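2 proteins. here.
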Amino acid sequence: MVYDYSMNKNEIKDYISIIFWSAVFALAINIFVVPFNLYNAGIIGAAQLLRTFIVSYFHLNTNLDIAGIINFLINIPIFFAAYKLLNSKKFLIKTVLSVFVQSLFFLITFEKSLVSNTLASIVVGGAIAGYAVSRLLVAKGSGGGNDIIGLILTKYFPGFTVGKYSIIFNAILFIICGIAFNPEVAIYSFIQSFVQSFMIDKGHDENID
């Protein structure tokens, strides 16, 4: 009975950690990156890009960042694919929870970053966001989106890695940013993505060690 209670307690700690760090991740992006009209990598970046196009095309004026809603909608078919193709249901449940919390906090907008310098702000934002994602991985969940797609591709296409997929996806995303806006947007967004990825690997590897 003591052993079962310990397992339940660990699971609860994982869920609390996922809720907390998912909120931190979303807030880090919206506080330090979005005020400079820059974009995150992955599905979230795609959601932000779609948000910009939709708001511009329909001339929407809202105090909410609809990238959060778009992010969750994009992830729905990915969840269904994961349910069918991946064996870990606990991983999927934790990931759904993470994306839901992220999407809620992505709705919160900030007019200005806490750091006035663009480069400094994206480095700070990328570091915080990356560390937050590493905590999600430690809690046996993920941030959804490309993490799930990468796992599915790795499982069914030998030799294909999550890293390869992410590089291809993000390269296309940032090229679109560069064409749609200007090269500076793409470059700064890439730098933020690089710092974020570095912190994800560092935070996760240290925990494994």
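next one coming up
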Amino acid sequence: PESKVEKKFPFDIALKNADGKEFVSNKILKKNGKPTILMFWLTTCGPCRMELEAIKGKYAAWTKEAKFNFFAISTDWLENSTKFEDRVKAEKWPFDAYHDFNREFKYVMPGGLNGLPQVFVLNKEGEIIYHKRKYIPGDEDTLIDEIKKLQ
């Protein structure tokens, strides 16, 4: 239930990777002196697919320009776990992807994650300093600019 979810970064939300291994967000989303990007997506979302592709294409260059953490977190329903796993394995993203299989991030992120994709940039203290909903080509360039401001 929502009342049991830790609402302060790095939260305590159960996640699974594409191999089905379970983690807790506070063990993954650590405060390590770097800003963190959280991108929320669905396997059935066309704009999510476009944004993830755009980021994948620029990610290597970004890591040379700035130090940051990046996590792609699916909010798919539990019955879509296989779609999540297949998608992540097929894409071979250079960043970590997890499945919020209990859909609990909606309790901790502003706006309840209504409308995807959504991207949040958190500073090294875990405070949200940038938030974007939906995707328009070029949004990924704004994202790295926000990260550079925090270096």
